[in-house]
Amino acid sequence: MHKRAMMAAFIMLLSLTPAVATAAVSSPSPWGHGQVCFGDLSPLLNPLQAHVMCWKQWGLAHDQASANHSQGGISVWLIINRASWVMIFGLSTRVVFILWFSSKHHRASKRLLQPRLWEREQPLVSIIVPCYNEGPTLANCVHGLMSQTYHHTEIILVDDGSKDNTWNVARQLAGEYDLITLHKENGGKASALRYGIDRCTGSIVVCIDADSIFVPDTVEQLMRSLEDPNVSAVGGNVRVANRSGVLTACQALDYIIGLNSNGRAYSQLGCMQVIPGAIGAFRKDAYYAVGGHSHDTLVEDMDLTIAFAQHGYRVIFNPHALAYTEAPVTLKDFLNQRYRWTYGGMQVLGKYKRSMFLHWNPMGMIGMPMHMISPWINIIVSMLLLNSVVAAIFEHKVSSLVIFLGAMYLLQFVTLTYMLTIDRETKRFLFMTGVETIFYIHLLNFVTVRSGINYIFHRQAKWDKIPRLGTNQLQKGQEGHAKDSHIASPAADLEPDLEPVREWFSTRCNPDMPQRDGRSVASLAHPHHADVRGGQA
Q1: Are the CB atoms for 109 and 186 separated by under 8 Å?
Q2: In this structure, are residues 222 and 276 in contact, taking their beta carbons and an 8 Å threshold?
Q3: Of 75, 281, 461, 528, which is most buried by a Cβ count within 10 Å?
Q4: Residue 479 confidence (pLDDT)
Q5: CA distance 126 to 207
Q6: What is the reported pTM?
Q7: Strand, helix or coil at 230?
Q8: β-bridge mates for residue 153, sequence order
């Protein structure tokens, strides 16, 4: 109940911001204009009437301030107008910054699409799957892992004291496939990951959330990035599997615009902040060198990524390593998830605050400061936008609203169009641009404000487990994205025979491997994989 009250208070705070500015303008001040507009507090008994009254007084104060402007007074509306343009310029600069380095990374990452045989023996890869109440999603996750084109793997399922049927599902899967199942008392995701890594035998560790699913070449793409001996860790491209609702579609856009574009840009700059928990890989010796997963924060993936950077290890982003995850479908679950992410991010920034601006390295000078500043810029923009909306209603300043809203929509549209193109996603997401600009961004800003207040006052946050529905399945058409990801858009015309070569490579490595004939990942699982993989391991 208190969360709903906080959200309502946040919206009211934004909408009543002009009233505060009115009081500031009309009250006695060193510039000497006007008098207090709230002489009678009785209208406050009626919230709607009080709101209208505030905006009428805003207009009077604005007229008075405008009249005094030529005599040295200050127009608050003029200040807000100038601030709006400054914010639009700042957002435009950030968009250009992200898109520029994303495009450079996109061109550089095309080399990962070239088909080739492994020049040396394939290293053993340990895939760790931490599980806590993941009964509905675990089978889909394992089916995706069993269909990988990279076969020299061991899969370890770690049940972190689940209260549902997760352990029974894990044991059933272990009887069907060549898996390792571990059970421990509940200690959190970080402890489950550490428990599995301590007992694995591979030199490369791949982590995947149990609510996610890999496409057939995901592990192969991760290993291609780690072929470079200078690379110690790599993050993959997370997409939303269940995207049929408005909220989940907005989250899918957020993953594309936020995680994907930022991952490309900051990887190009050498300061990638987060290896997603849904898909990430690293060298085990580097993992132990930085101390492994920490229990200090709620976001163990970002904590580990910053630790890699602090110790001088290189972390990159591979956009062709795909994982589809199950996104929250209810508003409550969504707010809880984003609250944990945001609050945990603030914990990480606080943990490594001494590294910001003190030493010249990309993470301390660019990555961490941008992660800290960007959400609060969005909040300022939201406040200015809501002020413009209310001013257009009560002050008839429609032109300013149209320009401001149009600029925001244009920036979002351009960014989304470019990211959908290079990510080879459906263009139908473009119709959601307006919904994200008007509705979704304000939800994120509410979460940021709530997290910031609780972090400042040292209010502890906890991990709220989101109920799983088992929707981490590839929908119709998403298998095609996985296949097409092998061929970048410009390269498709230059190398039309690329896919037959890859098919030959897959069957040559494992004759029992099913052909990639467009079926879903779940249908690619094959009982013979257990024997083949067992022989290789």
Answers
A1: no
A2: no
A3: 281
A4: 52
A5: 8
A6: 0.74
A7: coil
A8: 125
